[in-house]
Design goal:
Layout lengths: L3 E7 L2 H14 L14 H4 L5 E5 L4 E5 L1 E5 L3 H8 L11 E3 L8 H5 L2 H18 L3 E10 L4 H17 L4 E8 L10 H15 L2 E6 H10 L8 H20 L2 E3 L2 E3 L13 H8 L7 E7 L14 H8 L16 E9 L4 H14 L12 E6 L9 E8 L3 H16 L4 H5 L5 H23 L16 H8 L2
Parallel strand pairs: 1-4, 1-6, 4-5, 6-7, 7-8, 8-11, 12-13
Antiparallel strand pairs: 2-3, 9-10, 9-13, 11-14, 12-14
The structure holds guanosine-5'-triphosphate and magnesium ion (MG).
């Protein structure tokens, strides 16, 4: 079976641990990577995230994953925890001293000392792949390591080693209410600057939204990171479902065929192709439904229209923005469980018709529907959505505002310049994010036919159209 592999890189190891735990369960693997399941579809595309190691006694599935950190603590905890036997020993790469919440240490100093070792390990991992589709990175962008080292790695991958592979990130953004250090907006802004230019797909998650979901839907009053990470893992599994299991996309059946030339029908590139109309605007907001579990689940409507409604409800979003203030450029919905494709498509179409002004009309059929019959562990049905909405500018605006207030007074800058950073880079990051916000705003306001003489979308405007297409 030819699969197109994804290599995971985590500089956010607690989130990564939750992700692997969920993926193991979905594929019938135990914590040491040994298959215990009974459903053959669990192994069809196991090669996307795992390499198979055969020994005389057993077959072990080893995650295609690197665990990175600039200090040893979290890596050691993973290594000595319940998943200690899962990852290969040389897939942990860490330093000792930490980045102390300083992006410059992650990108320029401490991180730079580790980058060659990481690139070597990545090369080894990619040599094990037949057709590497790309990478996914799990990191937070508020601290020093996931943020600075994560971005350094992204830059090296893009510019030096893997320019034609897809680079997807699950990026945890800082939230004003859940902020741990004052310099988070600096780190986040410097990271966003790199993500805009070097990433292909950035799936945004913010802890503030996660706290809201934990309290509201799960009734956990003081959620721990473990609780929040379990939510992120559910969404990560949802997003990657169609890369891991056979299913249908927009009514077309896709399933792995024995023909070795046939690659699995959905991959990161196709996801990007459908979701990203403009290369810089690749910041996606994920949502999931239903979040409720246990007793409460029995009282909640779970029809397909209910699921669709929930996916486009801000309470089910993993970022704290209000999508009603923006417009959807594109979205991908992924349904899991025993759901008829027609039913899902009709429900999505209905929601779009009822809220037509919320979806840009100049990208027809901008919401895709994928169906996979395998439900998540512990749920009968569930749905995930990745939306490219102009309302994501709210997140950037928020970070931009706190960044600008401190930067104007040059507060805390010495920590960064002491690591050899040029202040210019702060200004560049600031203006890059201001540009990005303006771009989102421009497409939010764009209409199929605007009245400012810009008529390239209109058929009747023969002259204008030919002018617009003449380049
Ligand atoms: N959801 C979630 N967020 C986390 C977790 N750990 C840290 N964060 C958040 O991520 C941000 C940065 O956390 P750090 O742990 O300092 O990040 P780091 O990448 O290790 O960087 P340094 O420790 O500064 O080297 C903070 O806003 C935290 O709230 C986690 O396990 N889950
Ligand atoms: Mg850390």
């Amino acid at each position: 079976m030819v699969v197109r592999e994804i290599i995971n890189v985590q500089a956010g190891n607690q989130v990564g641990e939750a992700f692997w735990q969920a993926v193991l369960a979905e594929h019938g693997l135990d914590l040491s990577g040994t298959y215990q399941g009974t459903n053959p579809s669990q192994l069809h595309n196991i090669g996307v995230y795992f390499s198979e190691v055969n020994s005389a006694s057993a077959t072990k599935y080893v995650p295609r994953s690197l665990q990175l950190d600039l200090e040893a603590g979290v890596c050691n905890a993973v290594r000595s925890g319940p998943m200690g036997a899962l990852f290969s020993p040389d897939s942990y790469i860490h330093a000792q001293s930490g980045a102390g919440n300083n992006w410059a240490k992650g990108f320029y100093t401490e991180g730079a000392e580790l980058i060659e070792a990481i690139m070597d390990a990545l090369r080894k991992e990619s040599e094990k792949c037949d057709v590497l589709q790309g990478f996914q990175m799990i990191h937070s962008i508020g601290g020093g390591t996931g943020s600075g080292l994560g971005c350094l790695l992204l830059t090296k991958m893009r510019e030096v080693e893997y320019p034609d592979r897809m680079l997807a990130t699950f990026s945890i953004l800082p939230s004003p209410k859940v902020s741990e250090t004052v310099v988070e907006p600096y780190n986040a802004m410097l990271s966003a600057h790199q993500l805009v230019d070097n990433g292909d797909l950035t799936i945004c998650v913010d802890n503030e939204a996660l706290y809201g979901i934990a309290g509201r839907s799960l009734k956990i009053q003081t959620p721990s990171f473990r609780d929040l990470n379990a939510l992120i893992a559910r969404v990560m599994c949802g997003v990657s479902t169609s890369l891991r299991f056979p299913g249908q996309l927009n009514g077309y059946v896709f399933r792995p065929k024995p023909d070795p030339a046939d690659t699995f029908p959905s991959d990161l590139r196709k996801l990007g192709m459908n979701l990203i109309p403009f290369p810089r605007l690749h910041f996606l907001m994920p949502s999931y439904a239903p979040f409720v579990s246990g007793e409460a689940a029995r009282y909640q409507g779970n029809s397909v229209p209910d699921l669709v409604q929930a996916l486009f409800d801000r309470r089910n979003l993993l970022v704290d923005v209000d999508p009603r203030y923006g417009r959807y450029l594109t979205a991908a919905t992924i349904f899991r469980g025993n759901i008829a494709s027609r039913e899902a498509e009709v429900a999505v179409r209905d929601l779009q018709t009822r809220n037509s002004t919320s979806f840009v009309e100049w990208i027809p059929d901008n919401v895709s529907v994928t169906l996979v019959s395998v439900p998540p562990v512990g749920q009968k049905q569930a749905a995930t959505c990745l939306a490219n909405s102009t309302s994501i500018q709210e997140l950037f605006q928020r970070t931009h505002d706190t960044f600008a207030a401190m930067y104007k007074r040059r507060a805390f800058l010495h920590w960064y310049t002491e690591e050899g950073m040029d202040v210019m880079e702060f200004s560049e990051a600031e203006s890059n994010s201001a540009d990005l916000i303006a771009e989102y705003q421009q497409y939010q306001e764009a209409r199929a036919t605007s009245d400012d003489g810009d008529e390239e979308y209109e058929y009747e405007g023969g002259e204008a159209a030919s002018e617009a297409y003449s380049h």
